[in-house]
Description:
The chain has 353 residues and is of the alpha/beta class. The protein has a single domain (9-352), classed as TIM Barrel, CATH 3.20.20. The chain is built from 17 helices and nine strands. The chain has helices at residues 9-14, 35-43, 47-52, 54-68, 107-111, 118-121, 123-136, 149-158, 166-172, 177-199, 217-223, 225-238, 255-258, 274-281, 300-314, 333-345, 348-351; strands spanning 72-74, 90-93, 97-100, 141-147, 204-208, 244-247, 265-268, 286-291, 319-323. The strands form two sheets. It has a seven-stranded parallel beta sheet. Strands 2-3 form a two-stranded antiparallel sheet. The longest helix is centred in the middle third of the chain and has 23 residues, at 177-199. It is globular and about 60 Å long. The two termini are 34 Å apart. The structure holds coproporphyrinogen III (CP3). Coproporphyrinogen III is lined by residues 27-32, 41, 47, 74, 76, 78-79, 92, 95-98, 145, 161, 208, 210, 249, 326.
Amino acid sequence: MGISSNDPDLLKAARGEVLNRPPVWMMRQAGRYMKAYRDLREKYPSFRDRSEIPEVAIEISLQPWKAFQPDGVILFSDIVTPLPGLGIEMDIAEGKGPIIYSPIRTQQQVDNLLPLEPSKSLPFIKTILQALRQFVGNKSTVLGFVGAPWTLAAYAVEGKGSKTYSVIKGMAFSDPTILHQLLEKFSTAIATYVRYQIDCGAQVVQMFDSWAGQLSPQDYDTFALPYQQKVFQQVKETHPDTPLILLVSGSAGVLERMAKSGADVVTVDWTVDMAQARARLGNHIKVQGNLDPGVLFGSKEFIRDRILDTVRKAGNWGHILNLGHGVLPETPEENVAFFFETAKQLNSAAVER
Ligand code: CP3
């Protein structure tokens, strides 16, 4: 590991270096808006096959790289991928997302969870990450990712995606003992999994606490933040040089709290002005974001204006240009191409900060 001037730009930005232009990638950059992905999905209709057969997952991860040369290449996988290794059986249903066959509701189920052994239950992750690193070399940064304890617990307890989170909030707000034990076990497992991804070649790792924005700030402090901190602390103990990114969806009310998680980079969504986010986060935190994914349904002029606006507001250090959340499946592919071209042509003079 260590730090080298040969390192790719995204890694440098995540460390807070001043660059000529911000590096750029997109969350969900491999996926349904791409024809190449939809074609491959017909051949491999099961999401688990697409993400767990190494050759297929490698090809999908590289589709956006081949089309747009983003500064970051993210592993094609899902946040629920490690759950079977803990003894939580799941599938990922077309158009629905994760399904957990026996949702976790009892002490017995929490006691029965297995410790995660990534080299045994997730060997394909190693093959995929090593291949991505080899393929992109120093031209791009390979990103790994995991789900955060609260968000994975939301799937494990609810059994599927939820609009109301009534089951997990019922547990949290009546007798939270079992839930805290589950969150504790998930923290250890996720830290183990992040370390494994780094050992296999991930240069930056993003943790998605997508549903932590569904908690009020005081409940975020009880059920999300302490477990984010546990994961990041454990990883930093053994892998202090790998930048860690945190995403919370709908995070406007908890930005300052995210800055206390131990993450190096905080993802800012489009409900917050980037200049205000910078002011609220302070100058030791790097930022990622923050265009509305809906901008990509706009005109080319509009897309360009919004990129410039975000880049000016974020300033010339420690900014990774991105959308505030994943690219939407209906997005015109040519607008994604335009977004990347425009971003990559920026330079500090053109931005006139
Ligand atoms: O960013 C990338 O390109 C990497 C791929 C990636 C996927 N899932 C692939 C996927 C990443 C980073 C994820 C993370 C993930 N998975 C999150 C956190 C990110 C976020 O959106 O906040 C969450 C909450 C999940 C759970 C999940 N898996 C959902 C909500 C869905 C979508 C359901 C749907 O159909 O809209 C999935 C399935 C999934 N994971 C898809 C993709 C590309 C869509 C299914 C497909 O394309 O075949």
